[in-house]
UniProtKB/TrEMBL annotation:
Domain Tyrosine specific protein phosphatases intervals: 105-172
PROSITE patterns: TYR_PHOSPHATASE_2
Organism phylogeny: Bacteria, Bacillati, Actinomycetota, Actinomycetes, Micrococcales
Top-level taxon of origin: Bacteria
Region (Disordered): 1-35
UniProt xrefs under InterPro entries: Prot-tyrosine_phosphatase-like, PTP_cat, Tyr_Pase_dom
Protein name: Protein-tyrosine phosphatase family protein
């Protein structure tokens, strides 16, 4: 392993090198109970949901502003009608507002990747407003984590936002979509 000035042989940055909002230096130095490689989301950061397994996912609205507060995500899934890109690794899912994904299998594949990465990385899910599509995606992540399909919408409304999963067809999608691609 290569170390940089100020790091000890373990690769953990020495005091003073940590960025106040983005966590410690290199990814190899990030720590959480789930993985020795990452820093968890701040516990009081708006939109962070802890799945029953302990995985944490941040949901947010892209219109709500930048990611200047709190650590940056290691991976994101962006649910928008038009292409959305970030400066960190991410997936874009074509998903118009108040509707369902244009290609459900692409959405399930991207969400499965997000779920798998959440075991070791900070993952965020975002749409324009952060409620309907993001809530739908978080409910599907809860299903991946073992929450029964019929309870996933209520679970995400209790743990994320009361109005999450806005439309009847989004609620039906959460209950009925197969989680395998």
């Amino acid at each position: 392993m290569t170390t940089t000035s100020g790091d000890d042989a373990s690769g953990i940055p020495s005091p003073g090198r940590d960025h106040p909002h983005r966590g410690p230096g290199p990814i190899s130095a990030r720590m959480t109970p789930m993985s020795p490689r990452m820093t968890p989301w701040w516990p009081d950061l708006t939109g962070v949901v802890t799945l029953p397994s302990g995985r944490q996912i941040r949901g947010r609205g892209l219109r709500g502003g930048s990611t200047d507060v709190g650590p940056l995500p290691d991976f994101g899934v962006y649910l928008t009608a038009r292409l959305h890109e970030e400066r960190w690794p991410s997936r874009w899912v074509a998903w118009p507002d108040f509707r369902l994904p244009r290609t459900p299998s692409d959405a399930i594949d991207a969400l499965r990747e997000a779920y798998d990465r959440a075991a070791t990385d900070r993952v965020e899910i975002a749409c324009d407003g952060g409620t309907g599509r993001t809530g739908t995606a978080l409910a599907l992540l809860a299903r991946f984590d073992g929450v029964p399909a019929g309870e996933a919408v209520a679970w995400v409304r209790a743990t994320y936002r009361p109005g999450a999963v806005e439309t009847p067809w989004q609620r039906r999608f959460v209950r009925r979509v197969p989680l395998s691609v």
